């Protein structure tokens, strides 16, 4: 007896997309406003620029979620103009890989600030991070243009969007997806794993590092690991499975579903990354009347004012961190030895 055909739970997809939209939109808008608040107080650091790029990528992902919600409500039947299908797929997956590359760049920034504190503080420039962010856009846009290479006519009204391919199109698409898996997932994952493993080793090895800073460094690494493993790994593994089986995996829809959760998880990374940004985020929530809730949440990721005193950086609150390293994880004076 043959196995029953794979069916997609459209209600589940609709619920997850709606939840990601409801959470991801306000969280990332708040993060964007917080970055603006920090930019008005001091010069942006490379980490701030990378966080800005990450937030823009997440917002781009969130903006397209209503289309995913409509697809789920229509049970994957594409009822919008056919020309919008490849454009939507192109921009949606571009934002996914922009998120991956931005997370990787943040891990490199954190590692360099911990491993080479004096030299890195002397050489770092926000313009360098801006150039890196621009290169991420070029890489993501170039790779995701496979949408137009593999299937120029991606949908016709009454059929699904970007799921049915002629054999030559499918062969080309699967090979390009494998290349994307290697270049835009495996390589960033390896770099991120190296940087955060080394960062944790450095922070743990320093006896003068405040316990709160150790916890925040570990939490930052864990949040990034969850984003890679939960949100991005299944989708990219579907590239490999599809190439080996020479088919579009039927469960790929659920893998795509998981990528949207990164828009809700990345704001946690935002909070772990900088004391100044945490204070900016707190001010945003104070403005909309959610300051008490925000303060309780931010206590979980580090009481920046107390940590500033423990580490002896001088000053109080976010101002002392603003003069130091953007992440507030490892003060340079602790690393000179």
TrEMBL record:
Topology of the protein relative to the lipid bilayer: Multi-pass membrane protein
G-protein coupled receptors family 1 profile domain boundaries: 27-270
Compartments, as annotated in UniProt: Cell membrane
Keyword entries, A-Z: Cell membrane, G-protein coupled receptor, Membrane, Receptor, Transducer, Transmembrane, Transmembrane helix
Molecular function GO labels: G protein-coupled receptor activity
KW Cell cycle (keyword) present: no
Main subcellular location of this protein, as a coarse class: membrane
UniProt record, GO biological process: cellular response to fatty acid
Region described as Disordered: spans on this chain: 312-337
Segments passing through the bilayer: 14-38, 50-67, 87-108, 129-150, 180-206, 218-241, 253-277
Cellular component GO terms, alphabetical: plasma membrane
Cross-referenced PANTHER family: FREE FATTY ACID RECEPTOR 2, FREE FATTY ACID RECEPTOR 2-RELATED
Protein name: G-protein coupled receptors family 1 profile domain-containing protein
Species whose genome carries this gene: Mycteria americana
């Amino acid at each position: 007896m043959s196995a029953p055909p794979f069916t997609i739970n459209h209600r589940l997809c609709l619920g997850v997309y709606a939840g990601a939209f409801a959470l991801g939109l306000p969280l990332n808008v708040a993060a964007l406003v917080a970055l603006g608040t920090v930019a008005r107080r001091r010069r942006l650091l490379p980490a701030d620029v990378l966080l800005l790029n990450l937030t823009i990528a997440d917002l781009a992902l969130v903006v397209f979620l209503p289309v995913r919600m409509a697809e789920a409500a229509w049970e994957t039947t594409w009822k919008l103009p056919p020309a919008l299908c490849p454009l939507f797929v192109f921009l949606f997956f571009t934002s996914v890989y922009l998120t991956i590359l931005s997370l990787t760049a943040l891990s490199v920034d954190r590692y360099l600030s911990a491993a080479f504190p004096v030299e890195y503080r002397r050489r770092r420039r926000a313009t360098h991070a801006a150039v890196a962010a621009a290169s991420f856009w070029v890489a993501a846009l170039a790779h995701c243009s496979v949408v137009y290479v593999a299937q120029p006519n991606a949908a016709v009204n009454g059929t699904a969007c970007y799921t049915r391919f002629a054999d030559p199109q499918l062969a080309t698409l699967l090979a390009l997806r494998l290349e994307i898996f290697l270049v835009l997932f495996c390589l960033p994952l390896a770099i991120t794993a190296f940087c955060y493993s080394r960062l944790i080793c450095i922070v743990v090895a320093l006896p003068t590092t405040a316990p709160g800073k150790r916890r925040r460094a570990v939490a930052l690494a864990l949040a990034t690991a969850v984003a890679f493993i939960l949100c991005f790994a299944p989708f990219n593994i579907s590239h490999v499975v599809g190439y080996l089986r020479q088919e579009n995996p039927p469960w790929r829809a659920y893998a795509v579903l998981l990528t949207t959760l990164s828009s809700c998880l990345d704001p946690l990374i935002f909070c772990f990354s900088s004391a100044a940004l945490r204070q900016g985020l707190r001010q945003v929530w104070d403005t909309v009347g959610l300051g008490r809730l925000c303060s309780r949440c931010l206590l979980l990721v580090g009481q920046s004012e107390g940590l500033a005193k423990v580490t002896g950086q001088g000053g109080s609150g976010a101002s002392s961190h603003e003069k130091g390293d953007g992440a507030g994880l490892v003060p340079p004076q602790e690393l000179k030895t």
